[in-house]
Amino acid sequence: EHVQIHRILPAEASWDFLLLADPERKQAEAYLYMGDCYAAAQGERTVGILVLLATAPRTLEIMNFAVDEHL
């Protein structure tokens, strides 16, 4: 089954994935609300998360990235 990536609101982000990539919840939460969040889904199941933050003009930094380890 194909994986689809779509932008989500911070409130829709899976903390299981966010904390897998960064166990410091306060730091992960800061990135989540300052950046743009994307979820990867396979059917109805979330299989990954990505948070990007603009750090300079035309520059994005990956602040949080995690995928389901059972894929």
Short key terms for the protein model shown above:
alpha+beta; 71 residues; four-stranded antiparallel sheet
Please tell me about this protein's structure.
The longest helix has 10 residues, at 25-34. Helices cover 24% and strands 46% of the residues. Strands 1-2-3-4 form a four-stranded antiparallel beta sheet, with helices on one face. The protein has two helices and four strands. Strand 3 (45-56) and strand 4 (59-67) form a beta hairpin. The N and C termini lie close together (11 Å). The protein is globular and about 35 Å long. With 71 residues, the protein is of the alpha+beta class.
Radius of gyration over alpha carbons? 12 Å
Q: What is the count of β-strands?
A: 4
* Individual helix count: 2
- Low-confidence stretches are none
**Class inferred from helices and paired strands:** alpha+beta
Order of helices and strands, N to C? EHHEEE
Helix content class: 10-25%
Shape assignment: globular
Instruction: Record the strand order, biggest sheet.
Output: 1-2-3-4
Global mean pLDDT? 94
In percent, how much strand structure appears in the residues?
A: over 45%
Q: Sketch the major β-sheet.
A: 4 strands, antiparallel
Span between N and C termini? 11 Å
